[in-house]
Amino acid sequence: MSVALHYQWSGPAGAPVLVLGSSLGTTGTMWEPQLPALHRHFRVLRYDHRGHGASPTPAGPYTIDDLGGDVLALLDTLGVERVSYAGLSLGGMVGMWLAATAPERVNRLVLCCTSARFDTPQPWIERAAQVRANGTSAVAEQVVARWFTPAFAAHEPALIASAHAAIIGTPRQGYAGCCDALAALDLRPLLPAITAPTLVVAGADDQATPPAYGRAIAAAIRGARLAVIPGAAHLANVEAPDAVTALLVGHLAQPPGMAVRREVLGDAHVDRATAGADAFTADFQDLITRYAWGEIWSRPGLDRRTRSAITLAMLATLHHDEELAIHVRAALRTGLTREEIKEVLLQVAIYAGAPAANRAFAVAQRTFQSLDAG
User: Fold this and answer.
1) Are 235 and 146 in contact (CB under 8 A)?
2) What is the pTM for the complete model shown?
3) Preceding peptide of 61 cis, ω within 30°
């Protein structure tokens, strides 16, 4: 049975909703470093897991179904149909469950410093027993040592003290009940069912959920991307707030047209183009995304195959070889065959001249050879 979670709204009313899920032993306050940037794009909903913060603490053990069901019940209570979701550690596990179990409710997904399954349940079984017997203070020092790198901890004593206090303030039954959920966790069978565009974030120095866990998640979710943050441990959003914030905003707050741009050109090309943007070129990248892909390529009057054929013909005529190679690849993604691309270029030969077509055939041939070589 679900419980009525404690929650907090922030950000502009009427903006798209972003739900933030926190880690074991923390509350929604852990996301405060990201809020100013997120509020420029989202109405943010932070919640406390059952047994944490101001949420109820039912008797354990808990399961991931319990924790995910609580969030679904909260969204139903608030009348929120669709959200984007970002979660760290335990919050990320809830996010995977939510996106797989109720895919119609999740627009976009970020999974930070988390795992679909642990190598062995024993550490969680032992930690649950220790906490039930001696309280959360018995594990606070050990847990916080894994949350941050030693260098960060040495320079941020006040933050480390606050992290200790958060764990000690977590009810023992709530903390132990969530440990039970982690001991039994195995989300691997659910991952292929996730359809929301997914970004997986890992801390390079994370001992609790090492980057290998993130790589396994990204490999199992179709189209998921992995970003590893150098010099960050488990609470990467706290230790490397700027890097995590940039990744969150870049993935979740995509301008209109970005989804179409990725579908036509492919993630690898778009990632290279956007990663290379700086203060001088960022506005141009935004212009292209919004107007070329958000306006023209998104219009319903022509299907994508037709738009690809037209684009190939114009680029060939204008001798834009680099763009032509990109759109030969794109044409294959939109459903044109190599035979159909050949027919487009033959049409170019008649109406734009044999030299233009000759050049275009060479570009297309090199592109096909590159694709065939893998």
Assistant:
1) no
2) 0.74
3) yes
**String of DSSP letters for 211-258:** HHHHHHHHHHSTT-EEEEETT--SSHHHHSHHHHHHHHHHHHSPPTTH
Q: What is the residue type of 66?
A: D
Give the residue from 139, 116, 129, 121 showing the smallest Cα distance to 209.
116
Structural domains in the chain, sorted by start? 7-253 (3.40.50.1820), 266-373 (1.20.1290.10)
Q: What is the pLDDT of residue 258?
A: 84
Strands (E), 268-308: none
The full length of the chain comes to 374
Pair of tokens at residue 13: 């009313």
Burial of 150 (0-12, 13-18, 19+ CB in 10 A): exposed
164 and 143 in contact (C-beta within 8 Å)?
no
- Residues 8-22 have pLDDT tens digits of 999 999 999 999 999
Q: Is 198:113 a contact under the CB 8 Å cutoff? A: no
Pairing state between β 106-112 and 17-21? unpaired
What are the Cα distances from residue 125, in Å, to 44, 173, 178, 179, 209? 34, 13, 10, 7, 17
Q: List the structure tokens of 245.
A: 């914030």
Residue 175 vs residue 254, higher pLDDT: 175
Separation between Cα atoms, residue 19 and residue 200, nearest integer Å: 16
Residues with Cβ within 8 Å of residue 118, at least 6 apart in sequence: 124, 182, 183, 185
Tell me the pLDDT band of 169, cut-offs 50, 70 and 90. Answer: very high
Percentages of the chain per state (helix, strand, coil), in multiples of 5 = 60, 10, 30
Distance of CA 93 to the CA centre of its chain: 13
